[in-house]
Design brief:
alpha/beta, 8-stranded mixed sheet, 4-stranded antiparallel sheet, about 20% strand, disordered N terminus
């Protein structure tokens, strides 16, 4: 199976809610996201993980049609079977907030500093629902309570600068969820939250998924959140998907060296406090000069000439439901013994 091919649909499986095929994002002539393909089905959570700068957030923004002016995109994006990559801004604006919403990584920068918190949540609801202002205000107040903001009536009258970063994050989540979107994209949704509120937000997203059949694209560095929330996981490195599969299958066995080394670099649960963590040798390559062949080859302990010369396709791993982009997938287990 090539990297450009859509995932196979088994008999009886629901059609994809989101289907990306060969999605690329260019900044000038540089491909910062390179031929990314994956699907999300109704009620499914797909985690997108990888080091900072690998293209996770740009992939999400490309789906939403919110790329910066210097960026362009290519490839196909289908939402509920409808191609949306070619839609104009007016059509995309109708989809954003109702059919799909995004929780951004920097909530303070994403909120309007000149509008009260309540006005921003109400505006999101009135833009997509036939609702009276009084009804929208009541729904906004209830949503603030759902995301863990106490004294909601007072908070609705405040401006973003009057709230903490964690509280602004919860307001962003309230705006994203108020219309009960069918696709929710969450970019590090719990980064600024304490563990109690984090658990509350994750529970809320699970409930939304269960009650509405919404799909969730979860971008995170927290593997604990991945294990708790996700059904499948895509691992990105230097703008490409290098491995994809069932979350717990990938936690048990990895078929790409980067995934293997990434998981080994995490602190073990219940491990000794003074235990030294593993690291990945080298550094992420400069996006202006990607390495030829496999982009991980300069850091890979099992790379050879074919890795340095030819780009490996994202292909099915025999006997598993996983896909990996590695010429030596059967040798990845050797890395643990080195």
């Amino acid at each position: 199976m090539s990297e450009a091919a859509p995932l196979l649909q088994a008999p009886g499986e629901a059609a994809p809610l989101l289907d990306l095929r060969d999605l690329s994002v260019m900044i000038g002539a540089t491909p910062v996201v390179d031929a990314v393909s994956f699907t999300i089905r109704p009620g499914e959570t797909l985690a997108l993980v990888g080091e900072s700068g690998c293209g996770k957030s740009l992939t999400a923004r490309a789906v939403m049609g919110l790329l910066p002016p210097v960026a362009s995109r290519a490839g196909a994006i289908a939402l509920e079977g409808r191609e949306i990559a070619s839609l104009d801004e007016r059509a995309m604006a109708r989809l954003r907030g109702e059919a799909m919403s995004m929780i951004f990584q920097e909530p303070v920068a994403s909120l309007n500093p000149l509008m009260t918190v309540g006005a921003q949540i109400i505006e999101a609801l009135l833009a997509h629902r036939r609702e009276s202002y009084r009804g929208a205000a009541k729904a906004a107040l209830a949503m603030l309570q759902e995301v863990g903001i106490a004294d909601g009536a007072r908070r609705m009258a405040q401006y973003p600068f009057e709230l903490s970063g964690g509280m602004c994050q919860r307001v962003m989540i309230a705006i994203a969820l108020i219309c009960r979107p069918r696709l929710l994209i969450a970019d590090e949704p719990t980064t600024a939250l304490d563990v109690t509120i984090q658990a509350q937000i994750l529970t809320l997203m699970k409930r939304l998924r269960r009650e509405t059949g919404a799909g969730l694209l979860l971008i995170t560095h927290d593997m604990g959140v991945v294990a708790d929330m996700a059904d499948r996981m895509c691992v990105m490195y230097a703008g490409r998907i290098v491995e994809e599969g069932d979350v717990f299958a990938l936690f048990r066995a990895q078929h790409h060296p980067y995934t293997k080394l990434l998981l080994r670099s995490l602190p073990p649960v219940g491990g000794e406090r003074r235990q030294r963590l593993s690291t990945i040798d080298g550094a992420v390559p400069d996006l202006r000069s990607w390495p030829a062949g496999c982009r991980f080859n300069p850091r890979c302990p099992i790379a050879d000439e074919i890795c340095r010369r030819e780009k490996p396709p994202l292909a099915a791993v025999d006997g598993t439901g996983e896909r990996t982009a590695c010429w030596h997938a059967t040798r990845v287990a050797e890395i643990a013994a080195r």
